[in-house]
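Mods, move this if it's the wrong board.
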Amino acid sequence: MTKTILFISPTGTLDNGAEISIVNLMKFLVEKGYRVLNVFPDYKVPSQEEYQAELQKSGIETYGLSAIKWWWEEAPGGSPGNHFLRVKSYNKNVKDIRNIIVDNKVDLVISNTVNVFQGALAATFENVKHFWLIHEFPEGEFGYYKEKLDFIDKFSDEIFAVTGALTEDLERCFPNRKIYSFAPYTKIEPKEGLATESNIHHRIVSVGRLTQRKNQLELIKAFQMLNLAGTELVFLGAWDEDYKQLCDDYIVEHNLKNVSFIGYLDDPWSEITDKDLAVFPSSMETFGLVYVESVLNGIPTILSDNAGHKSAFEYMNEQGHIYPLDDLDTLTSMISEVLGGFDQEKLEAVKAVPSLKERYSLESVYANITEKIEDDELRHKKVNQKDIDFIGSVTAEVIDRSRTAVLAIPENTPFKQFSEVK
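Not the wrong board. Structure tokens:
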């Protein structure tokens, strides 16, 4: 009998690695014969319409749910509305997901980010399996979820984390259970046969949104130190306005030439020439999909050694070159060396592509997830009736283990003022 799987989406857009990766997983599961459903927070923006159309085209049934806030209270995204509106929205979302589970006879719920909890609760209510796919390190803006570890542990049949450093980190967070790994997947068609005359001079290129976390200013500073006549520095991707201004100010202050910002492109790799060197100086990544895309396109590549980049670097057979984050001297030296021996670097990069494509296949990167999907044993939760009563009566904020006192009022309880509540 065909299994029905319901995915809980973090954003309902295709502008982040977690979504891109799991959209590819959902498509893969449809091809394997599963019925796949998707729930996302519907904020009525064009990018979500594109997301929905992309999924529906692939045979994935979509449900957009209105939400005041979709992520945990403490998660990034601020505090829209007010406390009671958010609580009401959380509870409605859990109820709506429960209805989807029941109406579609869902066999498994998968939460595609640590930042959402509604699917875990809905699955518990309806006694179906729940998997948690975690893409985020428990630090920085996501450090809040260290306080959620007991909840995640209790309300998960299985926990999966991005391979490498994150898996190792979460194994320490959950010492009494197995953490399974996966590699985020990005579908890419390597560009074949770039003309040798496509560009006269070498360029240094960086693909991805211009943000503080992506740390492109470090590359701009390295470009200043290199002072390479005739070499361009090109950024391909949209930007955060504040960070773009910071970069612009630095460029003006130091009178830098040949630096350009192209903006968003549907296919940035089509703009790459056979003379280009890719550099990714990000200060934090979970894995580093643009690095993967770069080496799969046979592009000589340099990347910083943040934990996620190191995981991707190891997974992709250490293709390219890795430098210590914030070490401008090493970065400039490495760029100079790669450009100095560029023909050999390019030859080796192109030669590595076939073996990298074989290693980085859908079957390989999602093997642990698909194996557990096919496992019919129900091991989940060890949740008893007391737990069910608890999550059925408290507000989402109490579940959130807030230190703020919250009064939980059962649904449809009539009262006009708090003095009437017994």
